[in-house]
Design brief:
The complex is a heterodimer.
Chain A (H helix, E strand, L loop, with lengths): L1 E4 L13 E4 L4 H11 L4 H4 L6 E4 L2 E2 L17 E5 L3 E2 L1
Parallel strand pairs in A: 1-5
Antiparallel strand pairs in A: 1-2, 3-4, 3-5
Chain B lengths: L14 E4 L1 H15 L14 E9 L2 E9 L10 H12 L12 E2 L2 H13 L3 E9 L14 H7 L5 E6 L7 E6 L6 E2 L1 E3 L1
Parallel strand pairs in B: 1-3, 1-9, 5-6
Antiparallel strand pairs in B: 2-3, 2-5, 6-7, 7-8
Classes of the chains: A alpha+beta, B alpha/beta.
Chain lengths: 87, 189
Amino acid sequence: MARVIIPSPLRRYTENRREIFIDAPDLANTMERLFDRYNGLCIVREQPALLSIFINGQLVKTNQDEWSHIGLEKDDEVSLIIPIAGG
Amino acid sequence: MMEKNQITNLSHLKEILLPTDLWQEIKSHCRRKLAGEYLPGETEVKRAYGLLAGKVHDQVALVEKIFIFKKNARMIEPLKTYMDNVMAKYAVASKTPLSQRGWITDPEELRKCYDMCDGKGLLAIGTYHMHIVPWDHDPLRDTPTKLDMVLAKNTNMYCFIVSLVDPSKPIIRAFYEGMKEQEVPIVFT
């Protein structure tokens, strides 16, 4: 069961939860179940170019359409990051 | 770790408390970058970008820590294309080429920043950047531009504008998601 870490700016969409535990075999299914459970996080899905995923602190460089090939082990930590920007 | 009862939707704040030593830290960061003085590993551009983190109770935020971002990912794909497109659409014309304007955080640097916030029980309250050039219709430049608002949309954070148009009289103001009609007063403590 992977532990998904939600950064504080996005926690208004996850009932203030920092950690979401999701039982799924790979990254694609984990993200799918996360979005199903917390619909507000669709703003993340709508900005695929901005979304960065880290697994156990390592940046995932694989394209999103290949996330089903990234298996997740029990206790893996998945972090979602949307970069912030200014003019 | 996170305090369980902290409000994470920041849209309804009434006040932001900013300790004077942290305000000084922000000013020093901005002035150092303007002077062209850079830290090791810091992107060498005369722009300053940082994050204010703190705690929220009863619709009041207390800023407790400033994070200075060192790396601008402006020229790294796919963030470069995203920023190029947004800036081409919303940035006001300037002598500085669009490719040299704007700041977008390096994902790794931001992840570490959020981890440190969580470790200290802090929320990301907002980001700051500076405006230095007066415009005819906006001589103080102490409010967000259209571009600032677009980039702050859906961040659930405040856009802190640091005006250094007059370096001897710096100004800082805070706007929820960069919206001028959602300014929250800053109280120095």
